[in-house]
Amino acid sequence: MPTVICPGCGREIRLPANELSLPSITCARCDTAFVPSTGQTLAPVVPDDSPAEYAPPPPPVRRGALFVVGGVVALTLLLILIVAAMQRGPAKKTKAEQDREDRSAKWVNSIELWNQYRANAAKADLDYKGQRVVINGRISEINSDSIGFGVVAGVLVTQDVYDRMTAQEKRWYNEGYPANIVCRFDSNRRSEIAGIKKDSMISINGRVVGMKKDPEVWMGQKILLEDCWLADPAEK
């Protein structure tokens, strides 16, 4: 009895001589259809209206491709979480935590802090930069995200002195000098600013950033504090 070899799995199949002329046979082991006389494999024919389960399977996806796609998705999610955390800002401290930091921070008057930086900015940075301080003084400026302390006292000047002023200096003299010490509040603490009134005395806990150049303020310099909140004077 003649023997044919299945092209799909290599199985030897014994056939009667009269079946060698059949247009095709199917291997019982691997379901491969082929022409017995030539060994040519036949592609399965799927009718248009046949169920989806009879359609040929999709090509296999390599594990390396899955690993790359998974890594890109994980990295994208991580970046989204980081951006969201940055937009939210640091978690708001409890009242008890703020009171403890108010007690441990150095308390300094706004004019005193300004004079120390003006006298020796390098030394003042060693004493204050990166440190939390509670600064107290009279508010001269209120914005949506910051409170400012002025350091220039309003004094009358003669007409001769006024005439020698620049246009900017005249505007400051007439409308008020901008703040030379600016305390910035994070987004989760800006509601504290709503109840504050200009010219009131106040204490603010903040981290000193240092002195920065700013041509729009008196002397062209200002002191910045960040991560600020309203301090409780009773904790001094």
Low-confidence runs: none
Instruction: Give the helix/strand class.
Output: alpha+beta
Instruction: Give the % helix.
Output: 25-40%
Note the run of SSEs as H and E.
EEEEHHEHHEEHHEEE
Give the full name of the CATH homologous superfamily of the largest domain.
Answer: Nucleic acid-binding proteins
- Gyration radius (Cα, Å) is 40 Å
By DSSP, the count of extended strands is: 10
* End-to-end C-alpha gap: 108 Å
Give the count of helical stretches: 6
Largest beta-sheet characterization: 5 strands, mixed, barrel
Mean of residue pLDDT? 82
* Count of spatially separate domains: 2
Strand arrangement, largest sheet? 6-7-8-10-9
As for the CATH topology of the largest domain, it is OB fold (Dihydrolipoamide Acetyltransferase, E2P)
Can you walk me through this structure?
The chain is α+β, with helices and mostly antiparallel strands and 236 residues long. The protein has 2 domains: 1-46, no CATH class; 95-235, Beta Barrel (OB fold (Dihydrolipoamide Acetyltransferase, E2P)). The protein is 29% helix and 24% strand. It has 6 helices and 10 strands. The protein has helices at residues 63-88, 95-104, 110-119, 121-128, 159-163, 167-175, and strands spanning 3-5, 12-14, 25-26, 33-34, 106-109, 132-142, 146-149, 181-184, 201-213, 221-230. The strands form 3 sheets. It has a 5-stranded mixed beta barrel with strand order 6-7-8-10-9. Strand 9 (201-213) and strand 10 (221-230) form a beta hairpin. Helix 3 crosses helix 4. The longest helix has 26 residues, at 63-88. It is rod-shaped and about 125 Å long. The N and C termini lie far apart (108 Å).
